[in-house]
Amino acid sequence: MSRILIVMSAASGWERTDGSVYPTGYWAEEVAAPHERFVEAGHTVDFASPGGVLQPIDQHSADPEVAGADCARYVAHAEKVLGGYGPLLKLDEVGVDAYAAVVLPGGHGPVVDLHQDAALGRLLTAADAAGKLIGAVCHGPAALLSAVDAEGAWLFAGRRMAAFTDEEERLFGTAEGAPWLLAARLRERGAVHAGGPAYEQFNVRDRNLFTGQNPASSARMAEDMIAALG
Predict the structure, then answer these.
(1) In whole angstroms, what is the distance from residue 230 CA to residue 227 CA?
(2) 221 and 171 in contact (C-beta within 8 Å)?
(3) What is the mean pLDDT of the chain?
(4) Which domain of life is it from (predicted)?
(5) Given this model, what pLDDT does residue 182 score?
(6) Backbone phi, then psi, for 221, in 5-degree steps?
(7) DSSP assignment of 53-86
(8) CB distance 107 to 134 below 8 Å
């Protein structure tokens, strides 16, 4: 079977326009649900981040009133897997050749660091050139913004994709004071952004790119990638 790389943010805080810092971390379902599906299908999963740093969990993803009744299961799975994995791989030391797919989960961290991480940009550019699968869910598509060439042209301009919508950001209470909003930025850079109803599963596939709008779209993203891997 295949080896899959999950690239996580290393950010634990999101600086706002008023100078305050919003605590953030990985969203449990967006790590756990894809990992669960990939492993059940027989694939091997590695984890990497900038500097190999394991960010904390986003506490909202452990709150049933925010993340739903199943969140405790996702939290337990993510904490077990990440705790047992050992040090995460350092992103700038990872090559894409060993992997069939690269997956980018959310939490707000990708809008802090991964969107401008040059090592990730090189990895995604190589992955796309080799026809490897790329998956991103919720705020994970912010990480796609790292893939620019020497002239600043964005690799994924013109591609169809889903991501956490500006409406969802407003409903979540984090739009006001955000340095920028993800869906709007993706459209500005040339993405063909598609969105569904707030907080409902919505997924888009454009060739080797698989994206999901929100945590509820995480499992479906992984399932679509598994089907494509054969």
Answers:
(1) 5
(2) no
(3) 98
(4) Bacteria
(5) 98
(6) -55, -50
(7) --PPBPGGGG-HHHH-TTHHHHHHHHHHHHHHH-
(8) no
127 three-class SS: helix
Q: What proportions of the chain, in percent to the nearest 5, are helix, strand and coil?
A: 40, 20, 40
What pLDDT does residue 4 have?
Answer: 98
CATH superfamily, region 3-229: Class I glutamine amidotransferase (GATase) domain (3.40.50.880)
**Which pLDDT tens digit goes with each residue over 124-135?**
999 999 999 999
Cα-flanking dihedrals φ and ψ of residue 51, to 5°? 70, 5
Pairing mode, strands 21-23 and 13-15? antiparallel
pLDDT of residue 1: 87
Instruction: List the one residue out of 69, 96, 75 whose CA is nearest residue 7.
Output: 96
| Positions in the chain short of pLDDT 50 | none
CA atoms of 190 and 157, how far apart (whole Å): 4
What predicted TM-score, i.e. pTM, was given to this entire model?
0.97
